[in-house]
User: Fold these one by one.
Assistant:
Number 1:
Amino acid sequence: MSTYSVINSRAPRLDGPDKATGQAVYTDDLHFPDMLYGVLLQSPLAHARILNIDTTKAAGLPGVKAVLTAKDMEVIPYGVSPARYDETILAVDKVRYLGDEVAAVAAGDWETAYEAADLIQVDYDELPAVFDPYEAMAEGAPVIHEAYPRNICAEVHQEFGDVEAAFADCDLIHEHRFVNKRQDAAFLEPNNCVAVYDRNGYLTLYSSTQTPHYVQRTIAMVLKIPVGRVRVIKSYVGGGFGPKASASTLELVSCALAIKTGRPVKMRFSREQVFLHSRARHQFFHTFKTGVKKDGTLLALHNTCVLEGGAYSSFGIATVYYAGSLLGGPYKLPNMKYDGYRVYTNRPACGAQRGHGGVAARAGFEQQLDMIAEKLGLDPVELRLKNIMETGDTTCNELNMSSLGMKECIEAIRDQSDWKKKKGRLPKGKGIGMACGFFVSGAGYPIYRSDTYHATVVVKISEDGGTIQVRTGSAEIGQGSDTAMAMIAAEALGVPYEEVTVVSGDTDLSVDLGAYSSRQTLMTGHATKEAAEDAKRQVLEVLSEQLNVPAEKISLRGGLVFFEGVSPDFETIRIEYMKEHRGWTDSPKEGDLTFKEAARLAYIKRGTIVGTGKYKPPKLGGSFKGAAVGTSPAYGCSAQIAEVTVDLETGEVTVDKVTDAHDCGLAINRTSVEGQMEGSVSMGLGEALFEEVKFDDQGKIINASLAEYKIPTALDVPPVESIIIESHEPNGPYGAKEVGEGAIMPTIPALINAIHDATGVRITELPVTSERIWRALKEKNNPSPA
Amino acid sequence: MKKMITLKINDREYDLVTEVNRTLTQVLREDLGLTGTKQGCETGDCGSCTVLLDGKPVNSCLLLAVEAEGQEIRTIEGLSEDGKLHPLQQAFVEHGAIQCGFCSPGMILSAKALLDQNASPDSKEIRTALSGNLCRCTGYQKIIEAVESVGKKV
């Protein structure tokens, strides 16, 4: 039984009814009088010099209000990490991928805008293009950015401990290569926005973004407007998963067009443009070399990774670091070496997607652990338990596991799935596999170097004392953060959940770094709790003065006021309240003093009661280069067991069941936690079994639609049995930490380990299609002559 | 070329003049302000734009508005009555079947079409009926549970 009144329950989502009825407003639902429609012209070539852009015909088309090219403005480079500002609002001198944005048009309707974009004449001098990261690193390859020879966008070399020396002590050293495929996040709502510029020089951008704060900063920098004059408002967002976590050309161009025309400008990506903009999961080419003792004790890992990055950096520097740092746990690994290379190619830029940088690394490494277990004759569960980290452990790369229910997760799924009865005992074609993983609960540092708070929150009590409003710049993108914040505020104040409202996603409300790196429950949650406690303190101070009862003897619960050891006469407060509210229908009549009455009194004495809260993590991590990436105040962790049936004739995989345990610390909303777990399994299953962005030899995506790029349907996903493990996280609000990304970590390896168990073949390249399994089975049964 | 048409949407008749090449999604969203119908792909792949046409779920992005004349169109806005949520909407809220919400209108309408035909479907039948509506957030589990719960009540 929970000791809490509101949190740790299954409170229904605040936005549920509006979303169920179609009343919830998304950015593309917005309409403004006099609104213009903006369209981009994108490059038809993967790599080319721009010789000339002739916009005469486009500008002359009736209905066209503005045409924009890089020549029309001072071009200020931008990007995600300040160390790699390698993008420009529109292409300058050259295009670097098929889809690179060259020009833009604003017109009175969509059709005119599209027609005008077609009338823009661009003369290109085509350059040799390179699409493979290994070819891109070779001497003599086409150079995509002059400042980066051999197209190496970022390079990481780290060693913790002494890997070579440790290998000398190992009984078994295993090496294998693992490759995933470039993903598309395939959120259902294509990116879109509306920019409005007013006559006082204030710019408002409504956008389907995950990170209003970063978008605001980028707009201010690129368009040279003071930050205080840029307001970014996120309406409801139809999914993000990473690619909506940074400013896009769409957002910047709509702002530039709104400023140029003085009229609101709406822009949106088609589904094909979502694929072209990409910024989703990279393709990773990992080689793992792991050394163990006979008894399974892990001694050393040398991880090498090449990332196909596409034409721009986006989140890529963080990605290449994460692909190394996130193997520091959840196993005790005293020696780890990492060599990572993120490489530019003439393809759309990759960025961050759920489980940023760690998903492919985790998939390949957990597959390798199973290979090692097999060679040593150990049970995969036992091998993992033998090496598992526990609360208080620190990884060799200095990530501190301030709470870690990893062992509890493994034991829970092992017992729940009847692993011991099934592993090695299933009939042919049936298999069971497991894997683990962990993830940050909020990046330890902002994307730009700064002492900024990561979250500030304002809690305001209405003048009648009856409604609590949480005001935050954080981003509800479907994960349920508004609901979580309402629950935290209600708990901290001691009022019912139903009396709390949340306004969010607006840079005018507060500073919040947004929805990425699974940070909001912990970080915005801390600030919300502090703000609610601040508001409560003010109400209790006034009440204490009025009733002459020490504040520490007064408590609030469920919207009622309780006094410890005293029974003050509060009749005057009640009579005053009722007089003030004559004619209102919701006045308290008898029984305990209510929070409402107390808060009204506080308003009368002090004016509007506003509580504020803030959060930033303490200094985290080591002092080596890149030590910041992977740091977090807390880590969530997951273990999953997948059960599959494989048709040994055709290679077709059916996922029968997934048993999933996640340690999210205290679960603020149990339904939302399960929702993240189930959604993670679905996304991981898609990547494991069928998702892959495919290109032709000219760099054109050949499956840029939701028909050809297949994501799981209701028929593809198995029932998921979710087990919530709640370790107490000392650095989280009420002990809470992440679930949104850690939960995807084990899915791919659990599935491929189960497929191996069912078939006896190891597939080391994603997606694990029927064809790959069929070929591997054929090879196994009739080995081709060497 | 424009045409004058009458669309019967949520039991109400709308007389309007529209370009003949406009899709039903465009007319619903842009001309009539019925923005509960979502547009996720414009090519009939995602199901976000699902509406009921004479009780059957269709992708309104694949249908010209002029083709919908003479048929009963039901959109998500026409499901709740007297401000009260339809049992399916209520179940989606209670079961946590909604995350980003972008697929929810289409998903709920496809579920309604199923339940109108089959009052008590099993989970396989539900999964099949909803397989044209993509959801990237939930993994479908709580959606299936929500639909199942309404089916069992019938």
Number 2:
Amino acid sequence: MGMGIGIRDQMAKRAAAEIKEGMVVNLGIGIPSLVPNHLPLEINVMFHAENGIVGMGASAKQGEEDENLCNAGGYPVSLVSGGSYCDSVIAFGMIRRGIVDITILGALQVSEKGDLANWIVPGKKIPGMGGAMELAQKAQKVIVLMNHTDKAGNSKIVKECSFPLTSRACVDMIITDMAVFHVTEKGLVLSEVFQPYTLDQVRESTACSFFCK
Amino acid sequence: MKNRFNKITTVEKVLDLFHDGGTIMFGGFGGVGSPPSIIEGLLNKGVKDLTLIGNDTGFPHIGIGRLVANGRVKKVIASHIGSNPVAGQLMTEGNLEVEFSPQGTLVERIRAGGVGIPAFLTDIGMDSDFVSTNKEKVVLEGRSYLLETALSAPISIVYAKKADEYGNLIYDKSARNTNPLVAMAGDITIAEVEEIVEVGELHPDEIVTPGVFVNYIVPTEGVNWKWVWE
């Protein structure tokens, strides 16, 4: 994504700080998959996968891959003690029922009202929404991890999403390479600016207004 | 091995059930838990113009994606085709019709088909024109929902770890995924399995899919593709 490892880890670490003891958490692909590396060892968290795992563990070690134990992306993982398997209807039932406490996912655009667009770039191939709509609509807390701007330098935080929506008013928190925002009833609230950026730089790179904490 | 219910057969025999233009519902998620030997048999038999119903189109060389990549498929009903670039290319060229359903909605539609429910209500996708257009809306207790219809198929193909002669099935870890649902939603269901045992050998409490849903059991010849991480 053109970002240094350090920045990706910084974003993942900030997201990890939102995860509390006993939570059920679903992670998207990309930077969200780095989040477990930043959790304290003593915390008890169950990672949920849409294909039908509660209690997904770390990636399988080389040579220990089991094709019948994979994450939703098709890559081999492990199971933690207390983990379980279920069918995909049950896995999505957990999401719709609100049992997933946090989902951490990537985005193409997020609006100041927390609208999320993360599945179609107009004019490009349509990959399909997968489980993004269920997770965005029904997880208790939706955290977006994304670059602040796209490759052309356009802000991905916008007043209104121009890309097709995944779900309306669903995002609670945005963590970018520059800053952290919370979506509130009065609008976006900037809570943190990452080094080496300044508040002015964040303003210049953000295509909507926001409040400062 | 006894065959008291005449369900145990071979891939070769069950291939007679598949024809050009037919509809097949398949188990599996990202290729994991899709029946490799039946898919290989379908490729070799040369059936074409298929309609496929299942979670996703796998990868070009893994799972059901092999049929798509070989141009045997005219339509898929799925939640995702992103891991199979050939599927995306065929769709763009107009050579593959794709009907997308959100993943949880898709599997629930399959479950509904499998348990005799014609449709159900959900608010998933209400904010997406892509999902909600042309779907009936139902207001229940003041809230609006989409009416999502059941999916079933003349033939379902699934993958399981173990079957007994009656077709009672148990699955292997995350390879369970959509298989128990797809197994219920076929008019005819074929289970490709790693191991076949006599009735009575599976503990009744461990059976996930009761054999009433399974018509044929075929032994697998194992996975004949390289996994994406290999």
Number 3:
Amino acid sequence: MSTIAEKKEKVSVPFDYNKYLRPNKLPHIWCPGCGHGIVLKALLRAIDRAGLEKDNICMVSGIGCSSRTPGYVDFNTLHTLHGRAMAFATGVKLAKPELKVIVITGDGDALAIGGNHFIHACRRNIDMTVLVMTNSTYGMTGGQYSPTTPLDAIATTSRYGNIEPPFDACEMARASGATFVARGTAYHTIELERTIHDALVHKGTSIVDVIDACPTYFGRANKYKSATHMMELIEKDGTVNVKQAEKLPPEKLEGKVLRGVLHKVERPEYCEQYENLIMQKAAAKK
Amino acid sequence: MAITATKGQTGLTGNSAVAYAMKQVNPDVCAAYPITPSTQIVEDFSGYVADGEVTTELITVESEHSAMSACIGAAAAGARVMTATSSQGLALMWEMLYIASGMRLPIVLANVNRALSAPINIHCDHSDSMGARDSGWVQLYSETVQEAYDNVFMALRIAEHKDVLLPAMVCLDGFITSHAIENISLLDDQEVRQFIGSYSAKASLLDIEGAPTFGAMTLPDTYIEFKRQQSEAMTRAKDAAIEVMKDFGKRFGREYGLFETYRLEDAEAAIVVLNSAAGTTKVAVDALRKEGKKVGLLRPRLFRPFPWQEIAEALKGAKAVAVLDRADSMNAFGGPVFSEVRSALYDLDSRPRVMNRIYGLGGRDYKVKDAVEVFNEALKAAETGRVDTLVKYITL
Ligand SMILES: Cc1ncc(C[n+]2csc(CCOP(=O)(O)OP(=O)(O)O)c2C)c(N)n1
Ligand code: SF4
């Protein structure tokens, strides 16, 4: 039996983020209040929890504020083109299937310019974990609306309100064939860490849609008082965990977005199938 | 926020000036996707759309591939179409650039010059538009905010000229020109309208009677004829450019040519350089002239079509010419401007010595001292008749 003091000691051992970071690349570019840094912390903790070796990880990103993440982490990193992260990651995974491939992408990167790669990676069920940082805007280029901007929201390109219906990244991933689909938010950090962990240990395409805030553009344009105000309204009040949702009456779920693991099935993974096919054909030739 | 500019002298960034020019043109359609450093053009323009100051249909698509595709669709339907982009955005438009020129659609695009990945860099060089130099687009380059603004109108007139009908690109330097505020003189809307005139497409998809077809399959029996026509149109674009620039000067008092020369007449050593670096080079010219050194500058404005005879004529008096490229052709034989200029000089009876210096990639500063060094090297070549190093990176 450990004493309370000992327990406290145990809990307060700070997590050594530096172990996974490139301190000489800091400070990062993210604005105060931006959700991307919170997501990175959850990801690093999840990686640690999953016991992944730094050198066995390849982090791939496209272009955007979120896609700057690989610059700060001490893994094998590939910072590519806007929208193309999953295509590059597919190449990495096929060349070196033993690597744990993690894709960091924005909602614009993954679903607008890169939407095609997104659905095809899901369809193949190639083993990679994809974090889609959904801040409902193109942060990096100054707050244009993105494919996840809600109807009526204000953006630099929708000054009278957005008229394009948004995508639901999770539904799209599921429909395209991803075998693990989950959602988290930057507000629910502990849950997010767990969700990302589960995605990391899943074999196949695992998509985690992470709702996070861009106070600088989306927040200001839509009159949120602060980053915390955004987190409370969008991430805390606007979402509900799937498990809790099961117990709630429909009227309590109205307008709420579901968090947690939304879809998980087993299906042959692409690289394995590829390998098997080669082996089969080679064996038949002998 | 769009800067509300009024007639006369106004402080505007290059981007805001281009956006304002677009507002004055009031195109039928603009389809775009944001990218640094050109984002502000469409951002300002979207303000004009939202405020009802233009009647343009602004289509905010999901990539530049779609942006240029939508522009092409609109132009084929007979619309006057404009857009803006930079770097990877232009690169992603690649396929469509050739479609636009092949279909002879006079779309006008402002390209805010930025380096291409990898490694990623958001700052100025010319690798984006230089990569597109053979895509069949007319290319105009701009040294200043004023010139970028003026070029938009000239590009439109050249593109829509009945003897041309080709898309045109106005290039200005990322950040250096796009984000710097300069005091510029604006035309009033009436003047712009009179200068550009109204546009009526020669063939339009909306012409039910004529029912034209665009881009249909051509086999070896016809394709080459299409390309030859296109090439001839590009040749004619030079005369159209001369005509349009003359008219612009006559109307508004700002004289532009196919290229600008600065103290070149009696120069023994000359620098040829595009866009904003010319300003820096002029300071070096003045400084060296004070020391009695005969140096001068030639700044191409129209790069496509390339006015090679005129440029050769202008440079033939020099003993040495240093061509500065803000892009490398990666051919181990010099940058794109160098290749053109050197080739243009080939037919002269007595040719200046020519050298190439690649400078300022990814936004590296090009300073007066860099220009002075290049001039000194060129002066040495003028004196000795020998070029020690043909191609070299500077500003390292
Ligand atoms: C081909 C191309 N087009 C446009 C851009 C400019 N650009 C960079 S990031 C970005 C949007 C980023 O939005 P998102 O992916 O949602 O990430 P965030 O910045 O919001 O994290 C755009 C349009 C680019 N880099 N490349
Ligand atoms: S602009 Fe928005 S997304 Fe980008 S760092 Fe700032 S808050 Fe984050």
Number 4:
Amino acid sequence: MHNLDAAGHVRGESQYLDDIPVQRGTLHAAVYGSPLAHGKLLSLNLEAARRAPGVVRILTAQDIPGENQIGGIVPDEELLAGSHVHFQGMPVALVLAETEPQARAAVKLITADIEPLPIITDPREAQAKGELIVPPRTFRLGDPAAAWAECAHIIEGTAENGGQEHLYIETQGAYAYPTDGGGVRVHSSTQGPTAVQRHTARVLGTGMHKVEIDVTRLGGGFGGKEDQATTWGALAALGAFVTKKPVKLVLGRHDDLRMTGKRHPYTSDFKLGLSADLKLLAYEVTFYQNAGAAADLSPAVLERTLFHACNTYFIPNVRATAYSCRTHLPPNTAFRGFGGPQGMFVIESAIAKAADELGVLAWEIQRRNLLQDGQVFPYGQRVEDCNAELSWQAADQKFELKKWQAEVDAFNQQSPVRKRGLAVMPICFGISFTKTAMNQARALVHIYTDGSVGVSTGAVEMGQGVNTKMIQVAARTLGISPKRVRLETTNTTRVANTSPSAASATADLNGKAVEMACRELRTRLLRHAAEDLKMNYEGLEIQDEQVLAAGKPAETNWEKLVSTAYWKRVNLSENAHYATPDLWFDQTQEKGHPFAYHVYGTALVQATVDAMRGTYDVDAVRLVHDFGQSFTPGIDRGQIEGGLVQGLGWMTMEELIYNQDGRLLSNALSTYKVPDLYSVPKVLDVEFLETPGHPNAILRAKAVGEPPLMYGLGAYFAIRNAVRAFRPDVRPEFSAPFTPEKVLLNLYAARESAAAPAASQASGAEASVRN
Amino acid sequence: MLQFYLNDQLVRPTLRAGSTLLDYVRYHQHLTGTKIGCREGDCGACTMLVGELQPDGAVRYQSMTSCLTPLGNAHGRHIVTVEGISQPAGLTPVQEAIVAEGGTQCGFCTPGFVMSLTGHCLGGQATDEAGRAAIDGNICRCTGYKSLERATDRLTAQLLERDAAPERLAWLVEQGFVPAYFQQMPAQLAELRAETVADVAARTGGQLTEPNGTETTVASYLLGGGTDLLVQRADDVLAAEVQLLYGHADRCFIRETPDGRISLGAATTVEDLRGSELMQRRFPRLRQHLKLVSSTPIRNMATVAGNFVNASPIGDLTIFFLALDAELTLQDAAGRTRQLPLRELYRGYKQLNRQPDEQLVEISFRPPAAHEVFNFEKVSKRTHLDIASVNSAARLRVADGRIQEAHLSGGGVGPTPLYLRRTSAFLAGKDLNPDTLRAANEVAQQEISPIGDARGTEAYKRLLLRQLLFAHFLEHFPAQFALQELV
Ligand SMILES: Cc1cc2nc3c(=O)[nH]c(=O)nc-3n(C[C@H](O)[C@H](O)[C@H](O)COP(=O)(O)OP(=O)(O)OC[C@H]3O[C@@H](n4cnc5c(N)ncnc54)[C@H](O)[C@@H]3O)c2cc1C
Ligand code: FES
Ligand code: FES
């Protein structure tokens, strides 16, 4: 089945935030962001802006009726800067004008007197100065200190990864109206309606019951609208609350890029011990996470880095420590993979470095250390239903790893300028919110008297196809055509206290709730049928809208059944609550059972480097992925392809460059490059690994949102291998993304010092660009 | 008066000619199918089709990013949005292909892809490659493009049928690619043109009449495709008086002159340059070279003059034509003309040897002769739809293992696009061997002054220029030496 929203999308009829018909009297908002990354806000000069054409009002921290606080995990983030600014672009004032261009023009007239304070952009510097968002955390398994003695080889090094801009094509935004009774209704482009509601209520000094959040769909989220949508929702609501007029706030792309947080850059130190036969024996790793100026979701992201520190390998002795470091960048946030990719990049780097030093291929190490049932993850959960070996072997067989490697080697033998590299990227990703309490969801299902069905959940549609999945679950459970089912907007008055659409768990959690509600309705309807038509309840079912009794058509169908039930005063609405069973985590011990299940897969990635120009192509990605029992294979394949390409982008061309003043230099789509049509691999094979799925997965179809992103890491190592094919004496540092610049600098690194040249972080760079 | 067809309606906007087509369509006509992702031409979410009547009486449809299309450039044309191609019920074959292949997820980029592909079906070649090129200006963050490639390839077979049909447009209408009103467009645009001859005359001399010129004009701009000006100063252009040059018949031509030179009208678009048979004959690799310049919709808008006058140090066409020693004809407001070598246009960062009222009208150059070679190199973070970190062009005459003449240019390595005068002079008369090239690089390194920015550190740009210098020779004389001998 296709994505049910697709027809509206291709006709241009699907409604996004900026498409909502504008109410009369709507004010348009624009945000004045701090020009400095850190300082004491002495005064704001708003006079010129107030007098600008069309300006109705300018709001600052003083205008907030409630609490000036939007921090989720840690209350450390003001909505509008009060006494201090903490990052460039931090919202300081909100201009409300009659038109959007007027509001934008007025913002340009605002100036601020800010006493500069020292700026930190480097997480290690922050850590050294004690600037931590939360206390550090350490996961432990076995006794690495004792294990080093047994290791035949010990490899040490550093790995760094850059951040990643979400680049949802629809920028952030919200549209708020004052409602009857002194409340506000906010249309928000958010993955977390409840977060927007909770923080807006806090900011307005009112109850959550007076704040209604409604979401139709997002033009992309990828984590960037999980916590970070709150600012814009709350600002629009503040405007509407204060002026009693509708207020619309849609960020321009430049503002969106410089004001919002991104995937976390990390810098990490690793030490890896191996036995003579390439078994991983001990691993110590320290992660320094660049959290930006406020906690946002950083502590949770940090935790997931620890959970995925060993990727899909079993290492008996592990000590993994993580610091969440406060810097003066925009607060970094959720992004598909949520810290997992950063953790995996370090272990893969350590393995690559070991391979360099031992003169073996990295995949010889990888394949010897894959997880097996009965082992234990460093966080205490037992490895069960493990498909690490299975997916590796399937990939090996289908794509003939050895033969492929031989072809690459042969190519390199005869090609002086173009060089190829092959890398294997196996993954293991845990499914669930690691904060156990968040693994709950509700669904509200109405059957209308004509037999049509309305379903409300806490899930937000952002392209991942959750609407289609929910409709499928409802239709299958009720035994009716999906055409009868409509998925309603996500609205906090219909489904309350929701978890955000995140952690790949949305379809599982909300789908289970829909399934439960629909089961209950089905039972109720069939009991009514049994009574009404004097049939035996046992053996009654609904298939293709026909009621069957012991497999034979009974004298009623869906429409009749619903109608007669209504007249018999049967309740045709149901609200169900689902909480994932058996989850727990004890943070004092850093042990527990945090994940409902794990998803596995293995990708083979080939890249070709042009040693003349330093450019490269990722030629082919061929992968085997553990889908469980997919019931929407088209949508799930789309998640793999899209996630993979996002991961490739992060590892290759997507380079966020901040200068020492905390100013974003890659501040437009002309300087921050995401993959285009021509940069995706020519060959992209996705093989479905048939596995039984998992009972905690909706209809046994495993979660598919985040895991594929991590296949993209393979591109980094494939390019690195290609560089080394040209320059075997060079050991490129582990510094993602592997931009053409880093490739070229590595290819021509001075012969005498084979150590790689410095990364391209624009320390000396002042100009953003010379266009 | 500014007037054009928006889908099947004749519209006469009262906005200023420098407003964007996008804002007019979304916020004045309330057609919200067209999306906004960047307002900088870089995402394609706002793609529309712009149809222009051709001398042969047919309408040629090109994709453009409406966020950078000055409303004035719509004058007399047929503007098509997603609302203008959708049928009352059901899906067009393009829409159907995208749905069937899973080519839409969040859907925000989708109307842009639909328009680009519809444009491809209206006029593109029936090959997979041409289909993909049609969507090279559309960014999708969700799908990873594979499904969109599949959708595109699916259309190729249908387009082969189109080519076999006796009447292309009739076939497309019959198959539901576009609604029937498209068949009236040639006649309607012809009628519009007749009505607006006077206006066309008016814009040749001055600006288009401003319908409600109540605001004081702050400045006056010459406007080509708008792909630089509307990125850099959209707000100013909106408030300004503009002189529209885009698509101006007197400024759009590519011809060979009797002395064997090629003469280009200044408003020739990059895509027309790329499509020119004459140019392709003279530059056999022109299509690949210019494929590295922006994207299909941007090339449909971008003019050669705009590239020169924008004076970006990494302007691709500027670099291309610097190596060809192009000569410019400039004309001031009084109609006086003068000639100026392109190499003398640049004085400093965005400083031009040009009066504010001087218009670039013509570009003339000697194409490479049979015994000469020409090469263009560009490296950017993303190969396509990206600005160069460094670019370079070379025109070389080599005979008997000796470089007779060399003309090299380099972009991204100084405050202006550079003709590498000293390097070129150094190479002339030298034997073509690794020593010469290494020595030439030494000279080039003295001549350039790159700075570190978001497109690369200084060290990288210096290294890259060296590599591109070598690449010119390795591309054309691969038998002579190997890369390994040079580095
Ligand atoms: C997404 C995107 C990608 C791009 N990629 C590239 C790229 O890869 N390579 C590249 O080189 N450029 C690129 N550009 C820049 C731009 O497209 C080119 O420089 C283009 O050639 C500019 O032409 P235009 O007609 O659109 O200029 P306009 O914006 O209309 O004008 C630019 C300047 O030239 C002046 N001008 C225009 N015509 C004349 C004339 N006849 N006489 C005197 N002055 C005139 C204008 O007043 C203005 O100052 C890109 C732009 C965008 C938006
Ligand atoms: S909005 Fe991105 S290209 Fe126009
Ligand atoms: S479908 Fe979301 S950006 Fe293309």
